[in-house]
Please model this.
Amino acid sequence: MRIASGLSASIVTLLGASLSQAQYLINEQSFGYSGRLSPPEGNGKIPHFVVLGNPQPPEILSNKIILTPVAPGNQRGSVWAENPLKITSWIADVDFRASGPERGGGNLNIWLARAGHHAIGASSIYTVGRFEGLALVIDQHGGSGGMIRGFLNDGSVDYLQHHNIDELAFGHCLYSYRNLGRPSQIKMRQTDTTFKVEIDGRLCFESDKIKIPAGYEFGVSAGTPDTPDSFEIFKLVVMADSLQPQGDTNSNAGSQQQVIKEQEPPKKKSKDNTKDTSKKSNMFEDEDFEDLITADEDADIFQTSKTQFQDLHNRLQTTNHQLSAVYRMVNKHNQLDDQRYHEIKQLLKGLMTEVKEDLGQLQQVSELQKKMKDLEREFRSMRAEVSNKIQANERSVKGYLTDHHATLSQTIIDGMPRHTKLVLLFVGLQLLLAGGYVLFKRRLATTPKKYL
Model:
């Protein structure tokens, strides 16, 4: 029982030592970690940082920097580290606060880019041209009330000329950041395997396909429209597991491994030089077990209780180390399984979203086809009705004109004088003329002639 309790205590001690990792603050990339942005003798400047603004520079207070004021609008401000980050595994915390009127707007951009204060300055993701690095954007995208999105660029994409910048985001999450009355904390974590973004202790998004190289500069910029939000930065803190640059990490790890090996207890060797009894088991192929294998030795060499106890002590220590290595391996596998689970979950979520979008598009297409068929039927019925009405109008007009022509012809015929009356009138006139002539002759004959 005492051996088991000692074994468990050794395992807990070794696990605690293996899981605990020291974090080092990178002063040249950080400000606001001590409660003050600048020392009393700093003359209102932040050490190791460059502050830019247009048309007015940001206001630096004792505990915060106001990148954009609440009035007037159309302001731009930024703060950039003067020196690049020389490591590839780091943790960056940014505390910010956004406040403004009900319909205020603007965006906050957290950068890790090459030559940031020269190439980017106080630009936002919508006004920057070509840049190389990472951009984390906080704004009210699409009327969502607040969203955090991540963008990457290797210098080949001109964001200023791109027709749709929103489709370039590789990760996003919703977050209502305005008028909270407290600072919000964004934590970016870059390891050898993953890149992760957290907001107020909750996971926003992560990816195992992103590896940001060393040599980039941290920076924060903000821009506002006519009705602005006031963006305030309280701190930018960058920490790392080691302060060694990227090129010196391997040598540092090698020296640490050498120190660990020197601290291990020496292994007993057989007194018989003619026999090579040191055999390593090949059932453990992981590098964590290679230095933990105890050589097999003949039992005849342990003549005293002291040597027996020493051999038992060494083997118990080796067992503790092996159990610790097993636990580390299990922990690694659990982390890999969790990571793969989250990846599969994200993939399934994205697949379900795409399937829903495709189904929605297909449903919209089917509805559009139905509407087209309904319109086609309506056009056909309308065409038939118009044709029938035109034909009916033609028949009615034709009948009306026919009746009108017949009536008009009959009226004309009835209104014309008859030939009989005309003939009788002519004959009567001739007879009257003839009668008058005869009477004139008779009267002329009976009248006495007068002679002069």
